[in-house]
Amino acid sequence: MTTSTPLTSESLSEPRWWWQRLNRYHWYVLVICALGWMFDCADQQIFTASRSIAMSDLIQFKPSSYGGSIDEYRNYIGSWATTLFMVGWATGGLLFGTIGDKWGRAKTMALTIFLYATCTGLSALAHNWQEFAMSRLITGFGVGGEFAAGASLVADVMPQKARAQALGLLQALSAVGNIIGAGMLQVASWLANGEEHWKWRYLYWFGALPAIVAVLVMARMKEPETWVQAKKAAARGEGKQMGRIGDLFTDPRWRRNTLVGLALAISGVIGLWSISFYSPELIDSSFPKMSTETGTRIAAVLIESDSALSAAVSGFNPEDKKAYANLLSRTVSRGEKVPGDPSAVRLSAERKAKMTELLSHQMPKAQIDTLKSKALILQQCGAFVGMIGFSILATRIGRRWTFAISFVAAWASIYIVFLGFHQPEQIWYLYPLLGVCTLLPFGGYAVYFPELFPTRLRTTGTGFCYNVGRYVASLGPLAFASVAATLVGRFDTPAFRVAALIVSSIYIVGIVAAFCGPETMDQPLPEDQRMAAH
């Protein structure tokens, strides 16, 4: 015989699923904030997908001036553009974080969306890599500021028992933006009809469209009631001032939370932007870019004697000679520099064998672009699963253990992908794995950071942790490029891949920081003691 628990009015009225707790305005806020962040991330993905294409179009490579391959020089200059983008991101997060607490979340979000959309369109007008990098710096201001305003707005508005899941969904939808950005590469390639000069520019013009979302934000969005009350209390002198960065460090509780948040952000951002987001370059480094005809002609001369090979290379057309120089630069020994005239290099039998092996992996430009687009979409599909997975796991085992597991998984995925990727078909399982694992911690940033600070500092603290950490993290791409340049010719494994393994040790910082912060699962958003009592 079995007994059953009698149904009460409370149990009947309790929603089973988190989304059943949301009313129409909750959904409006979530959708608009998700659109702003989604297009924000599409902007980032446009940059990631087009970085190597834009750099190839905007730089002039002189082999004798750089001790590495054309690809490595492009990656080096691209790292400077990435660093400036991240510095702008960090500055925008700091600046608009304080504005969000002082001026209002909704107004700040509208301004940041308009800023990053407009400057993305202006990036398409760059004439050299310096102009391009400066436009990315200013775009970063808006990109960095949007997340803090949007995440804080959702955290303030959502019911407590739906907050983590709503924030997790907000962050996970960033993967949809990244998929849109990756898919745009295919559209831009079709519109450009093979013209590399126009292909990446079309991408940035597409990136200007999200400015429309800024209009929607200003149309109906209201400031959260908790922010309105905190603002009134501050004006009456009954509460502390809004959005003061110094207050993140004067109170021991907020100082601890700020330092933990910074450490978590630095670890994950370096891992993502210095390694994981170089996945398109991993494809470039794996498959030499040249036409089938060029590959056939180079293969034919590699079996010739030294004198015949030199004469044949001297007679190459510019496209063949560039492809040959690129192939030659991939086999440099430690300290070697490829001269301006590649026909002057005498090849050993071992070097010829290496170049022949590389030729077996050559691909035309169009095929590589298609492979990159597919790989990035697969990576972002994995990212969506990873960020949703964080919010699900965090509501079951807590924020701290979920962060620790996330950083361990991210670290392992770097080793698996950067050592194991060699064949085009591997994108179907290695790139989703990279996306799931390296984006897992980012699902936690949206959930955890707003839970660390009171209403008067919520946007400031979230922006400070998520974006100011990028000042340190912005050194990651430069460190990655410098380590790779130092390792050229030292290993049979390409220096690009070995550098990724070394830089990925930054995840240790995240693992340690995960256990230093407070556990916020099932806890209300924190407040200052005086404000809470009032």
Describe this structure in words.
The chain is built from 24 helices and no strands. The N terminus is likely disordered. Helix 12 runs antiparallel to helix 17 and helix 17 packs across helix 19. The longest helix is centred in the first third of the chain and has 35 residues. It is mostly helical. It folds into 2 domains: 420 residues, MFS general substrate transporter like domains (Growth Hormone, Chain: A, Up-down Bundle); 68 residues, no CATH class.
Distance between the terminal alpha carbons, to the nearest Å?
A: 53 Å
| CATH-scheme architecture of the largest domain | Up-down Bundle
Return Rg in Å.
Answer: 25 Å
- CATH homologous superfamily (4th level) name of the largest domain: MFS general substrate transporter like domains
The major β-sheet equals: none
* Assigned CATH class of the largest domain: Mainly Alpha
Unreliable spans are 1-12
Mean pLDDT: 82
Order of helices and strands: HHHHHHHHHHHHHHHHHHHHHHHH
Strand fraction band? under 5%
- Which descriptor suits the 3D outline? elongated
DSSP strand tally: 0
CATH topology of the largest domain: Growth Hormone, Chain: A
What is the count of structural domains? Answer: 2
SS content category = mainly alpha
